[in-house]
Amino acid sequence: MAQYAIALGSNLGNSYTILNKVIFFLSRYPDIGLASSSPFYQTFPIGPKQPSYYNCCITINSSINPKKLLEILFNIEKKFGRIRNKRWDARTLDLDILLCNELIINTSSLQIPHPQMIKRKFVLLPLCTIASTWKHPITKKTVKEHLQAISYENIM
Ligand SMILES: Nc1ncnc2c1ncn2[C@@H]1O[C@H](COP(=O)(O)OP(=O)(O)OP(=O)(O)O)[C@@H](O)[C@H]1O
Ligand SMILES: Nc1nc2c(c(=O)[nH]1)N=C(CO)CN2
Which of 23, 45, 66, 78 has its CA 20 to 30 A from that of 13? Predict the structure, then answer.
């Protein structure tokens, strides 16, 4: 059984409702147990000009392996209306695997920890509300320490 941290984001459609529905959907998914879920934060977009986001994080327990979980999350993004065009395009749903136990994976299609997570306040702030002491397996710093190191502000 592994513990995963997952980041959710949405900035197209009724984002608040979409995130709620996705968390409910995941909580009922076979072999996935929802452990915790953060508050939702409205955040200014990082990157190209586009609508503001709702972001949150969850932790789950699952016997599903990381590669299979990525495939499942990809299909859930599709089910909730994600159309993939360019990188960083506005989207109804983005699901990123942030952490899996103390595991490090570095393949072309899957990197864990998520390489961008420690730079993103819209990830670290919600994650810190549910997993502040989780140690990043590469930097060895906790989620809280990474959050404290970020100076920019994009939370509304
Ligand atoms: N830990 C991970 N979680 C989710 N996707 C990942 C992960 N590691 C690698 N990927 C890969 O990243 C690819 C691009 O993902 P996506 O289209 O969601 O990027 P993005 O959200 O636009 O940008 P970013 O990657 O900066 O969040 C996916 O096809 C997936 O194979
Ligand atoms: N505030 C915010 N900005 C973003 C986000 C996101 O989830 N929230 N996701 C991006 C691509 O993954 C790019 N920029």
Answer: 66
Domain harbouring 114, CATH code:
3.30.70.560
109 alpha carbon to ligand 1 midpoint, in Å?
A: 8
Average pLDDT along the chain, 156 residues, taken 10 residues at a time: 98 97 98 98 93 97 98 96 81 96 98 97 98 98 97 80
Interface predicted TM-score of the whole assembly (ipTM), two decimals? 0.96
Domain count, the chain: 1
Task: For residue 85, tell me if it sits in a domain.
Answer: yes
What is the 3-class SS of the chain, one letter each residue?
CEEEEEEEEECCCCHHHHHHHHHHHHHCCCCEEEEEECCCEEECCCCCCCCCEEEEEEEEEECCCHHHHHHHHHHHHHHCCCCCCCCCCCCCCEEEEEEECCCCEECCCCEECCCCHHHCHHHHHHHHHHHCCCECCCCCCEHHHHHHCCCCCCEC
Please give the residue range of the domain that contains residue 31. Answer: 2-148
Q: With respect to residue 49, please indicate whether it lies within any of the assigned structural domains.
A: yes
Q: Which of 28, 84, 96, 120 is catalytic?
A: 96
